[in-house]
Each structure stands twice: as structure tokens, then as C-alpha cells.
Specification:
The chain is α/β, with parallel strands linked by helices. It has one domain: Ribonuclease H-like superfamily/Ribonuclease H (Nucleotidyltransferase, domain 5). The chain has eight helices and seven strands, in the order E-E-H-H-H-E-H-H-E-H-E-H-H-E-E. Strands 5-4-1-2-3-6-7 form a seven-stranded mixed beta sheet. Strand 4, helix 6 and strand 5 form a beta-alpha-beta unit. The termini are far apart.
Amino acid sequence: MKNADSGDTWFFVDEAGDPTFYDRHGNLIVGQPGCSQILILGFIETQNPKSIRQALLTLQQEVVSDPYFQKVPSIRKTAVAFHAKDDLPEIRYLVYKRLAELEFRAQFIVARKIEKVFRNNFQAQETQFYDHLVSHLFEKVLHRYQNNHIYFAKRGSRERQAPLLAAIQRGVHAFENKVGQSVTTNVEVLAHRPRGEPCLSAIDYLNWAVYRAFTRREMRYFRVIEEKVSLLVDWYDSDKYPNNWYSRRNPFDIEKTTPL
């Protein structure tokens, strides 16, 4: 393990899908309307978040001031923040083009929602399931820079900085055990709403591209940003193990995966 660089790096984290398995009556609802078949956690990493912010804010201003979009109801949401699910297809195209021009790296963990695994490994607890993925997402990346700033997209009113930091530290400890060395870098975990932080819009868009690949088997969005992706793990695709880890040496393509 190399010594940490003395500088700072920033991670912007978001999810696609949800960790829900059951309705309020205890019935399994995975794959039913409103409940996803997968949960994706992803981050973008950058040493220069200001350049990403400025590029996306400039594009946002261009879009909301363009007469072509003025009478479209969804433009009010776009004026707050880019969000792949809600933005018009024309806007989505512009955002993906801009993201392809920017400097950052991205990693993802895709978790298929398998009830047996959920009950046996996580005692049917959504937070355990979610935090386990957080641990693995950050296990091998926090030793490279001395100061690591991790921003999670904050949804709703729940704040979980302390549990998320604990999950991240478990991942770091697992890495230490594997390499036989201590990681002495600093880690800061913060929650931030996508409004006011364009870097969270960036990871929202990348997550959406991965989500479309898995749920629609549609690669065209991913193709635009695939050069940014250094790792994508299809965590519970046991049929493809060990080739369910996709990287530069084994590039991700949805045709390599087991269909949901």
C-alpha cells in the first residue's frame, strides 16, 4: 500500500432503487410497482469538485433560460437541480454530454434483492443491508488521500452520518486486515440535499444510467459515461462469479450479467 497523497479528495454518494423488501404487513413486494428489484449505491470521486459544480450550474442556467423549455412543467424541478428521472429527454442528453467532458471517477455496487440473503445475512433489517453495501463501496478507496470528504445525498428527514461513518470504518478495517497495514487518513461524512450541490446531480445521473442498464437492459446512457467507471460490482450475481466484478480489464456490459 502506497503512502497517502497529502491532498484532499471528495466523494459524492447516492442510491438508485430502494432497500425495501416487505410492505407494512410483512408481504414480500420486491419487483412490484414502487419497489425495485435492485439497490444501487454509487459515488463519483474528484479532487476538483468546483469544476464539476461550475460546469453543471452553467448548463442548468442555459437550460432554464432557453425558450424551448419555458412552458414545460418539469422545468421547475430542473431549475432546482438536475434529476435524471424527472428531466426531459432533451435535457438528459445535454447533461450526459456535459458529464462526459468532466474529470472524475465513479464506482458502483449493484445489489440484487434476494429474500434469503436479506433474512440470513441482515436479519431482514434494511439499514444493515444498506450499510453493508456502504462498507464495501468504500473499502478500498480511503487510503489514497489524506483527507476524504464524503457527501451522501440526503433524502427526507432522516440523518445517518454516525451509522454511515461506522459502516465506512468497518470497510476500512476489512481493508487493513487484508493488506496488513493501518490506514491513517481522515474521513468526514456529511449529508447534503441535491439542491445546492451539483455534484450530487452528477452521481444521480450516473446511477440512473446503471439502473436503466439493469432494469431495461438498455446500455445507451451508460455508454456515454462508461470511461468514468473504474469499478462496478454486481454483488449477488452468483451465476457469474467471479466475473461479476467489472473494471477496465473486464468492462461492464449488461449482456454479461444474469437477467433480473
